[in-house]
Please model this.
Amino acid sequence: MIANTSPIDELIQNKNPFAGHIVVRSSQVWGKSFPDVPTINAHASNAVFDAVEKVSKGERETVGITITAEKGVGKTHIISRIRHRLQTEDNAFFIYMGKYDNLNQIKYEFLQTVASSLRAHGSKNVMQWQEIAAALINEVREWNYTPQQYINGIYPKWLQKYSTNFIDKLTEIVLQKKPEITNPYLVKAILWTLSSVHNNYANYWLSGLELTQQQAEVMGLPNSEKKDKEAEGLKTVRQILDIVSDYKVPVICFDELDNVEVNEYGFVLAQIVANLVKDLYNSLKRGVFLLAMYPPTWIHQIRALPDAEAVMDRLLSEQLDKQPLKLNNLNSDDVVAIVSQWLKVFYQENQVTPPHPVYPFNETKLREFGKSKPTVRSILKWCAENFDNLPSKSNPVKEYYQNELGNLEASIDELMEDNNAISNSLRFAFSSLVGEKLEGIKVEAVQDIQANAADRGYLDFKIIGNDNKVKIGVDVIQQSSGAYIGAALRRLIKYEEFDITRGCLVRSKKINPKASVPNECLKKLLHEQGGEWVMLQSQDIKPLLAIWFVMRSCESYELTEEQIFDFIKQEQIAINNALVREILSEPSGEQPEDLTDDDLPISIPQSVDSNADDIDLNLSLAN
Model:
């Protein structure tokens, strides 16, 4: 006789809510988070909420808070809780930095982080940038329109009536009423975020990146000619945060600070960020800073700074004992609460009712587990491994890869502009192919391209193959600026100087035909030197980004490099990837077809919300 399987047992056999979810990723800070038990380590999150309230009420101007905990205790989980709570309230803007690609350009990277964070939706279900833009207009005009009214009704109507000239007039009004703002272009870019046509370009410019000449002219935003991105980045960040803080409290979180690499001056990441926070703390009107790190990072790196006392005074401004807030490991009640909450969400989503809150686990066993004071990560890992009391049915890498692939859906547009992420994922993919032969090339090594200071940063890496006879220099160029594209291509065609036999441009966008230097270099690359332009497409780069993100977090996921490389080979993620194969294939000597247009559409949108008819469009300087 065949035993009947109940719906809940069938569900358990086919779905594991814990698998692949033992680590909170940055995407979960912004998007759907882990199931949370707010009472666990509430002292840390409450410290931030109390600080926001004090700053909002004018009781404090700036507050610095530092939390420490060992790996897996829940630092990023606390930050995620803070983000999601603030999103339901209306008194703070949230900024999160958890990725650091270049320790020598941390201030410029922070500018990009601020711009990216403010692009995320806030409490009003629009971008935080758009909340700021609407608040600016409402303040100087004494209006009370919502961001949605500006986006759907007012801006389209202004564009029809005044073309793009209305932004100049609006900027002038803001600067007259708020003379403390000294950068008119910053105001103009923020105001542009309310235009659905111009929003993406405004965000791009606010990130410190250059627009094409046509974009810059249409929007009235000059491309920076300053060489010192670090100094300019910090200056711009201060101006942005000062504007932001007129309306809500900026809550600025720095996570993942335990990298031991050093910058050109010998400082590690935590020390660099601590000094950045000290500078910002001293100069901002108001704000709340939160740093999360391991205890040894605090003891051996922060306290070892030359001006450690001054730094700690700012990072611990609310802690009278001048010690970081420590997160606690779980007790038995915490373990039961966490497992119950995860399973409650799981069963509700699948519309089944369990016999008891921790089914299929035994509460007594969970409480026994809690006596050992486990970390959040270890209990989730144990639950993943024991959920159906069966051996794991899938590769341990697979769950993380699939999760990262799913998370990319929300961020791929932004990542398509991220040269570093694209370059790193490509480089990792080719590293996994060392020893393999495809497209007539046996991959032997992937190397840095040696360059002097003036040339550094323009070329990404080179692929060595066929007994060192093939050396393909790869350069990802997603920037819009003709000047940057020209500078990079000038280097890509210098085969002898950079020890390459073929140059390969990776890019998804057209290059302005009027940009003389880029097009001259492109002609030489494609028609005279046997180089190639490979089209970057999101469907090709997604799997490479996903597996690179897994690799980047392998320590947290408790995976080895060998496991990840084995998975790449088993799933043929790299060897069958169209972008990888195109880079290695025989060059066609032609530009790719179907490149995207990097310039603004000329036409003004014709659809205008009919509810905008009764909105006063008077742009005169008088109220």
